[in-house]
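Cross-check.
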Amino acid sequence: MSEDDRPFVTKRATFALDAVDEGTTGDEMSDGVGTLDAVGESSDGIAEEITASGDDAECPLCGVSLPVEDPPMCPNCGAPF
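Predicted model, tokenized:
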């Protein structure tokens, strides 16, 4: 670990240790975001979005209509899709 990395690692380690000391689980800290239950509940909608026709696709970040035949990148904001 370089000297430049130390502040970041120290901050993250302190956060993790404080959570363990308080007895807080990851589920409590995230309000369910990213938990297995949350992923399971939203997987049907995610699968529909992935398999949906790209004809009417919009960029999830800026809302611009995405072209079907161009590279998988938003022409407005550059987000990958």
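The CA atoms of residues 36 and 42 lie 10 Å apart. The chain is about 45% helix and 0% strand. Passed to J.P. for a second look.
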